[in-house]
Design a protein that fits this description.
Biased composition (Basic and acidic residues): 100-133
Signal peptide: 1-22
Shape: flat
Protein name: Spy/CpxP family protein refolding chaperone
Region (Disordered): 100-140
Helix content: over 70%
Structural class: mainly alpha
Order of helices and strands: HHHHHHHHHHHH
Number of helices: 12
Keywords: Signal
Length: 278
């Protein structure tokens, strides 16, 4: 969460000092432009903002390219630069403009929280069974960062993990072979049949095994075309200059339509398979 607000603050600091020429470019939808318009900056203020933005960008780039600093040192220095930059920005702004800027920052923060909340819901819809694994991996990654491992330690841990995965596969294979020695031939046949039925079950075939859908080639082609068209239309909306809220709604409508069309293609394909003579 700290990183989220730090990144947001840096974005706001950079956006505040973007030079705007809305009359010539006709782009009133970008965050920096909307903010400057709300603040009603004078020409002198815009010039000073541009100078601050340029200086801030240069320092941030130098910090990013500094290989002598650790990641934690860079984050600390980044916060210092951001605080210095915001202090300089406040010297340029009037008290009223500073109040408007704070209000805008709070609003952007709430939007970021809502956006992250929607992402979380989408992740849950994609597969609840995967969520605990992803959460554990993310938490594990954060804990590993807190350890401040050296490069040598990271390399050794990676080697151990690779060795563990290899041995796990070998043990899994060995386990299956040992089980097959216990089963009778008839039991092995029944077990294989149970596995096939499990894969064909609608409750499992679509979730996590999309590449194994038992559909004809024509339906697979339709699914591919649907996805390509959806991605093209989505990209076009993302690159458009419409208002952010309208953009989000269009993308939401496109996504809903794409999912409905995809489900219909799969449903129709399965109907055809069910009616085929055995």
């Amino acid at each position: 969460m700290k990183r989220l607000f730090l990144s947001l603050a840096i974005l706001i600091a950079a956006s505040l000092t973007m030079q705007v020429d809305a009359q010539n470019k006709g782009r009133d939808g970008r965050p920096g432009e909307r903010m400057e318009k709300e603040l009603n900056l004078t020409a002198d203020q815009k010039q000073k903002m541009e100078s601050l933005r340029s200086d801030f960008g240069t320092k941030m780039k130098e910090l990013k390219d500094n290989a002598a600093l650790s990641k934690d040192d860079k984050q600390t220095r980044m916060k210092e630069l951001r605080d210095q930059h915001m202090a300089e920005v406040n010297k340029v702004l009037t008290p009223d403009q500073q109040a408007k800027m704070k209000e805008w920052k709070d609003k952007r923060g709430e939007m970021a929280k809502k956006r992250d909340g929607r992402k979380g819901k989408d992740m849950a819809m994609r597969g609840k069974n995967d969520m605990p694994k992803r959460g554990n991996m993310a938490q594990r990654g954060d804990h590993m960062k807190d350890l401040n491992l050296t490069d040598d330690q990271k390399q050794k841990i990676k080697a151990l993990n690779d060795d563990f995965r290899t041995k796990s596969k070998e043990l899994s294979q060995q386990h299956r072979e040992e089980l097959n020695k216990v089963y009778t031939p008839e039991q092995r046949v029944k077990l294989d049949e149970m596995k096939k039925n499990f894969k064909k079950d609608d409750r499992f075939s679509f979730r996590g095994h999309r590449g194994n859908l038992n559909i004809d080639d024509a339906s697979k082609t339709k699914l591919k075309e649907l996805k390509e068209n959806y991605l093209k239309e989505k990209k076009a909306v993302e690159l458009s200059r419409i208002a952010p809220d309208a953009q989000k709604q269009k993308i939401k409508n496109l996504t809903t339509k794409y999912r409905d069309d995809k489900r219909q293609v799969i449903k129709d394909a399965r109907k055809v398979n069910d009616t085929k003579p055995v």
